[in-house]
Amino acid sequence: MADNAIGQNMTLYTMSKSSLQGFTRGFGPRPWAERHNRNAGATGPIDTDMNPADSPHADYARSRMALGHYGAAEDVAGLVSFLSSDDARHITGSWITVDGGFNA
Questions:
Q1: Does residue 70 have an active-site annotation?
Q2: What does pTM read for this prediction?
Q3: Contact predicate 43/100, CB 8 Å
């Protein structure tokens, strides 16, 4: 994939993440807080079937990450588990990133 195509795809991807982030911060604290739908998480490169750590573009992703390696599904599951627990009962409208420093 040409660098220009990567840039175009990243722009669209970033726009979708920004929209979800604004939605979470705008609506999370108010209408849905009582239903415990209060927060959202954004992931970066996570080793999945859809985004494998050995894909043709994986080296590019790793070069942008502070930690330099793809995350695992368990890394995201830990955040979801915490946000779903009573330990997070007073956290609302938050956007938490699990990306190994991809956006740092």
A1: no
A2: 0.68
A3: no
Residue 97 contacts residue 41 (beta carbons within 8 Å): yes
Q: Which of 1, 9, 10, 13 is catalytic?
A: 13
Give me the tens of pLDDT residue by residue for the chain, a chain 104 residues long. 455 655 667 788 778 777 777 777 776 566 666 665 677 777 889 999 989 999 998 999 999 999 999 999 999 999 988 988 889 888 887 888 899 998 87
Domains of the chain are 3-98 (3.40.50.720)
The span from the CA of 24 to the CA of 13, in Å, is: 17
Supply the DSSP string of the chain, one letter for each residue. --HHHHHHHHHHHHHHHHHHHHHHHHHTTTTTGGGT---EEEE-SB--SSS-TTSTTHHHHHHT-SS-S-B-HHHHHHHHHHHHSGGGTT--S-EEEESTTTT-
> 74 exposed, middle or buried (CB, 10 Å; 0-12, 13-18, 19+)?
exposed
